[in-house]
Amino acid sequence: MTVTGTMLVLAAPAPPARPAPATGAAPPALGAPAAPAAPARSRGPAGRAFGPYRRLFALPGTRAFTAGNLIARLPMGMFGISAVMMIAGQRGSYALAGAVTATGLAATALVAPWTARLVDRHGQARVALPATLFAVLGSLSLIVCVRTGAPAWTLFASYAATATTPNIGGMSRARWTHLLRDSPGPHHTAMSFEQAADELCYMLGPVLAAFLCTAVFPEAGTLAGAALFLTGMLVFTAQRSTEPPPTGTATRHGSPLRALAPLLVLFLCLGLVFGSMEVTSIAYLADAGLGAASGPVLALQAAGSCAAGLLYGAVRPRSLRACVCALAVLMAAPWAAAATGSPAALAAALLLAGMATAPTMVTAMSRVHARTPRGRLNEGMTLAVTAILTGIAAGSAAAGLTVDHLGPRTAYLLPVAAALAALGSLARLRPVRVSGRLREAVARDT
Q: What confidence tens digit (pLDDT) does each residue in 425-437 have?
């Protein structure tokens, strides 16, 4: 398979019969380290597909901060389900557990952008470590309050304290952007890897949390998540050579909120897709008598997105409109599969639908990079994540009401409608004029 595009001029080695003009096109940061080994390792389709990633991680310091990033990111898929299982198991109330986690989500939506702004101004290590310690103390306080039978309000206060959790995915993407600011092709590969890592952690996190809470003790999921998060953040922030320089307390650039407003509508719609799809699938599988299998079946959607994200990083990026169109089409697959009444067909449809998620997220996040004022990247990405979380909450609620009144098969139309709304939101999204090779590459016509 021959893959073309600006990015793969950097990633794929030149054929043996030719001299090395292609390697001369590579940016200085990605020049010599990976060149000697590339020709031998990139033979065959698999070598060409993973060649960009080998060259990416040949950059000094990238493997170390990525290791810490992955350790700290895994608990992001653990905390919610761990809190629900711990509170419901000890207090016997899913209503209380749901209210506590919803309060934490609302607090995060308010606090996270401010935490990200401080990270941009003062540096990742200086802000993220204290914020992480405060969030970990909130998790430990929640364990103690649940275990000792403390009043219900203490559960809300403890879980709300975890809202200072730094956006580890955003900080990692900011490091890649800092390292690859003059290399648009490798930057696309890095963003695809980050999205695949998100999907992998949100696929494995709930499974690990459920196992710990049921097989060990109810508080084990929260305790393990807090330990992993603190350890990973210590490793991540220790890598100072790759940390973006802080902007300082005074910045000449305004808030990214206004510049990102049209994109935030898109991310809100994407959150509606994710939230409604999850709740509807759980309800459908429960009606089919497969409630215990809902976790593995839902994991197929994340698995499809993870695989698609890695593959997308090895090919030329597509336009945002093309990605959202593919999302709208593939989100109809679960609705069609549900009409057959076959859980196996639904599992295959979820895997297929998930494959449209990562390319859409990667391409949309590249627009965030293009539109965010210089020195405010963490804040801009955190605003996008906040919009997604808001959409997930709204989509979950809408799907629950639809399932109760019309059934899960009809509720599968909600992700389709949300994807179409995301496509419609692109009408307000116009190209922006920004400087720099990376920004010129990502600020393409949608």
A: 887 766 554 444 4
Among 98, 10, 43, 124, residue whose Cα is nearest residue 393: 98
- Reference 269, options 370, 397, 380, 417; nearest CA is 417
Per DSSP, the residues of 69-121 read HHHHHGGGGTHHHHHHHHHHHHH--HHHHHHHHHHHHHHHHHHHHHHHHHHHH
What are the tens digits of pLDDT across the range 39-50?
444 445 445 556
Kindly report the number of other CB atoms within 10 A of residue 238's CB atom: 13
Largest alpha-carbon pair distance within the chain?
75
What gap in Å lies between CA 416 and CA 411, rounded to an integer? Answer: 10
**Which residues have C-beta within 8 Å of that of residue 427, sequence separation ≥ 6?**
none
Phi, psi values for residue 245, rounded to 5°: -70, 140
CA gap 384, 394 in Å, rounded: 16
Task: Evaluate whether 272 touches 394 at the Cβ level (below 8 Å).
Answer: yes
